[in-house]
Design brief:
alpha/beta; SH3 type barrels; 2 domains; 16 strands; globular
């Protein structure tokens, strides 16, 4: 709290938790303005402070923010939490045990692959078999997985669990879902209602509205940290140019441009095959350009192999180029390291006979 010209101004300090623009931030630094106060301004002789903020929630962009504290409306410095004073008395053993359990539950450890939380924070009833992709993904230093479960077993749910877990572990903020046109709204609804993750669907209507709101120079793929796009819409060069505006020349530049890529019906981005040759389609070329810029990749399809080895090898190469090479047949061990494949006939009779038992399960 500083007082200038009789006006009390609460200026945060480095490390404070603050509320600005209806979001919570941590103060990274505070710098006093070097300009002299303007006596003619409405704020009198108050000296402004530039406050640099880092977001700690997932309500919007993960980019930091800088504001002039005294000029920013609706700011709030949250009170600092303090340890209890032992002189005030001790809690009962049961109360203290509950506090420890809550602390352990809230302190999720990214180094512990068994301490996942997304199954308990999602709004669905989960079948046991749907946890396997999540467990396998957390064992990977960088998620690269082909979920090839049979139709109706809930690949959307399995991908949503992994996405939510990566968000909770602060390993993924910028997420892109690529799917056929008819599934865009379904993915948006499923992610919002079942996993609490808000996505924007990027299409012609969204771009037009964005230009009216923010100007013609706006880039739709920088407008929100979580986006959904149709593979039929994004494949054209006019749409790919938006990526070229901000993608670095080297895809291995850190931090990467995106964190997580989810491709539904991934067999549609594999090259078509004629004889022994795999021919790249427009979808294939577009995804070849994009996939290197993602830290984590999830491909979903019930038909991973179209009968042409060259096509399947190309799909695996897009998934994990460090492990697979186009034209080289992968070993069973290498393939099984990245692919989860279950048929209805392989699952218990109760689950296999009623794929809709999992509330909200949708064919992927």
């Amino acid at each position: 709290m500083v007082i200038e010209s009789g006006v009390a101004v609460a200026v945060p300090e480095q490390g404070n938790l603050v509320r600005v623009r209806d979001r919570f931030w941590v103060v990274e630094s505070v710098r006093r303005s070097s300009l002299p106060p303007d006596a003619l301004s409405s704020s009198g002789s108050i000296q402004h402070h530039r406050v640099n903020l880092v977001p700690i929630d997932d309500k919007g962009s993960a980019e930091p923010l800088s504001v002039f504290w005294e000029a920013e409306p609706g700011t709030e410095v949250r009170p600092q939490a303090e340890l209890p004073d032992p002189r005030d008395g001790l809690d009962e053993a049961e109360t203290f045990r509950a506090f420890l359990d809550a602390a352990r539950w809230g302190a999720i450890a990214s180094a512990d692959p068994s301490a996942f939380q997304s199954p308990f924070r999602s709004g669905i009833d989960i079948e046991d078999y749907q946890l396997l992709p999540l467990v396998e993904a957390l064992r990977m230093p960088r998620v690269a997985m082909l979920i090839a479960d049979d139709v109706g077993l809930g690949k959307t749910i399995e991908a949503g669990l992994i996405a939510q877990e990566l968000v909770l572990r602060h390993q993924a903020q910028k997420i892109l879902i690529v799917c056929p046109p008819g599934l865009c709204r379904m993915w948006q609804r499923e992610m919002r209602e079942k996993f609490g993750l808000g996505f924007e669907v990027v299409d012609t209507e969204y771009v037009s509205q964005l230009r009216r709101d923010r100007g013609v120079g706006v880039n739709p793929f920088r407008s929100h940290p979580r986006l959904i796009v149709s593979m039929e819409w994004v494949k054209f060069e006019s749409q790919m140019r938006w990526f070229d505006e901000f993608l670095p020349p080297d895809p291995n530049t850190y931090p990467r441009a995106f964190d997580l890529l989810i491709v539904d019906e991934a067999h549609q981005i594999a090259p078509s095959a004629v004889g022994r040759y795999a021919l790249d389609s427009m979808r294939t070329r577009a995804m070849r350009r994009l996939t290197p810029y993602f830290e984590h990749r999830l491909f979903l399809t019930a038909t991973p192999h179209n009968g042409y080895p060259e096509s399947f090898q190309a799909l695996l190469q897009m998934l994990d180029p460090n492990r697979f090479t186009k034209g080289v047949r992968p070993s069973d061990r290498e393939r099984d390291a990245v692919m989860v494949r279950r048929l209805k006939s392989q699952l218990p009779h109760r689950t296999a006979a009623s794929p809709g038992h999992c509330r909200g399960s949708q064919p992927s």
